[in-house]
Amino acid sequence: MPSSLAPGATFPDYVLPDQTKTPRRLSDLQSGDPMVVTLIRGFFCPKDRVQLQGLSAFYKQLVVGTTRLVTITTDDWHTTNNLRQQLDAHWPFLYDEDRTVQQDLDIKEYTDTEHDVMIPHTVVLRPDLEIHRVYNGYYYWGRPSTAELHQDLREITRSIRPDWDLTQPALREAWEAGDKGPFYPYGQKSMERVMQEMAGAVDQYAGSADGD
């Protein structure tokens, strides 16, 4: 990773096709919530499979924790779909056959002369694609455990949700006064939109204003 992609920097807002061949913009998929982005080698890599299997089991917690998950691979569309289906994964898999991300972030795995892949990374993002933490997964133990992701996401959520501690008297006063601004999702999104996002219905909300 270039030094500019350090905590506090902004991750590039890539637009790549997903498993349905539909172009997706990362900021649309994030929709103002925390997000985890996994940059993987692809179908052939057993380390990727094990990591993604763990994320598949963890995904239910990400959903109820209003956290987005995106995987980016250099595989083609067909191979990307095979991997996603075999893992029973329910989040967007974006494929980057042109190696835009690999080249842009300067993460070509030059030790692999056969597959032309990315060095695996896991990037944990605050809203607005702000980088919170980057894990280098060239060696498997460099990849985050779900416990580490839980800790990262706790730190992020605590810092971005004013209603983290509902016992604060000022929060109760605001609620009783009809001020829902500090409360999530009431002050930011309709419950309908939140439920659509939790269901992964990206076509219904990506790039649109709330309530559209």
β-strand number: 7
Low-confidence stretches: 204-212
Encode the helix/strand succession as letters: EEHEHEHEHEEHHHH
Calculate the mean pLDDT score and round it.
91
Protein name: Redoxin domain-containing protein
Organism: Rubrivirga litoralis
Pfam family, one: AhpC-TSA
InterPro entries: AhpC/TSA, Thioredoxin-like_sf, Thioredoxin_domain
Features:
Glutaredoxin; alpha/beta; 8 helices; two-stranded antiparallel ribbon; about 210 residues; about 35% helix; 2 domains; five-stranded mixed sheet; 7 strands
Description:
The chain has two domains: 15-160, Glutaredoxin (3-Layer(aba) Sandwich); 162-212, no CATH class. The chain is elongated. It contains eight helices and seven strands, in the order ββαβαβαβαββαααα. It has 212 residues and is of the alpha/beta class. The termini are far apart.
Condensed summary:
By secondary structure, the protein is of the alpha/beta class. The protein has helices spanning 26-30, 46-64, 77-87, 100-104, 146-160, 169-176, 191-198, 202-205; strands at residues 15-17, 23-25, 35-39, 68-73, 93-95, 121-126, 130-136. The chain has 2 domains: 15-160, 3-Layer(aba) Sandwich (Glutaredoxin), CATH 3.40.30; 162-212, no CATH class.
Question: What is the element layout, followed by pairings?
Answer:
Elements: E1 15-17, E2 23-25, H1 26-30, E3 35-39, H2 46-64, E4 68-73, H3 77-87, E5 93-95, H4 100-104, E6 121-126, E7 130-136, H5 146-160, H6 169-176, H7 191-198, H8 202-205
Parallel strand pairs: 3-4, 4-5
Antiparallel strand pairs: 1-2, 3-6, 6-7
